[in-house]
């Protein structure tokens, strides 16, 4: 498994994701979005799977502070803004090869772990 977690150290759901994989002894590559914002290509993977609107956290303080509730930007424009203002993103963004999830989704992560175990036992 090649798990990559994009998030923030102070995000509770990001910490839950890190703990989930750590408890299963799965190495992860953590990308702190405060230190290194996500690239356009990285965000595009998530937007293609879930839609641009799902990647942006409309409940976040930065979203409200930037006046985006009244700006009525298109989801694509919001995604562009998130490149320079990563706190607009819904985190954690987790990638396992071509598979991606947004937010706290332990059921899906467990399915990845189970599929990997199954591959190893039959391989």
> Main sheet: which strands, in order across?
2-1-3-4
- Mean pLDDT equals 91
Can you count the beta strands?
A: 4
- Which runs of at least 5 residues are low in confidence (pLDDT < 50)? none
CA(first)-CA(last) distance: 15 Å
Strand content: 5-15%
Number of structural domains: 1
Share of helical residues: 40-55%
Order of helices and strands: EHEHHHHHEEH
* SS class: alpha+beta
CATH topology: Glutaredoxin
- Tally of separate helices: 7
Most strands sheet: 4 strands, mixed
- According to CATH, the homologous superfamily is Glutaredoxin
Molecular shape: elongated
Over the alpha carbons, how many angstroms does the gyration radius reach? 15 Å
Which architecture does the CATH hierarchy give at level 2? 3-Layer(aba) Sandwich
CATH class: Alpha Beta
Structure description:
By secondary structure, the protein is of the alpha+beta class. The chain has a single domain (3-122), classed as Glutaredoxin (3-Layer(aba) Sandwich). 51% of the residues lie in helices and 15% in strands. The chain is elongated. It starts with a strand and ends with a helix. The mean pLDDT is 91.
Supply database-style keywords.
about 50% helix, alpha+beta, Glutaredoxin, four-stranded mixed beta sheet, elongated, about 120 residues
């Amino acid at each position: 498994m090649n798990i990559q977690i994009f998030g923030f150290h102070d995000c509770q759901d990001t910490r839950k994701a890190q703990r989930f994989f750590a408890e299963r002894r799965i190495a992860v590559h953590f990308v702190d979005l405060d230190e290194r914002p996500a690239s356009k290509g990285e965000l595009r993977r998530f937007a293609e799977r879930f839609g641009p609107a799902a990647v942006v956290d409309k409940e976040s303080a930065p979203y409200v502070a930037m006046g985006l509730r009244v700006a009525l930007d298109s989801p694509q424009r919001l995604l562009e803004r998130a490149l320079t203002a990563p706190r607009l993103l819904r985190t954690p963004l987790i990638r396992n090869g071509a598979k991606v999830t947004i937010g706290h989704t332990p059921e899906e992560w467990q399915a990845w772990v189970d599929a990997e175990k199954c591959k190893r036992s039959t391989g």
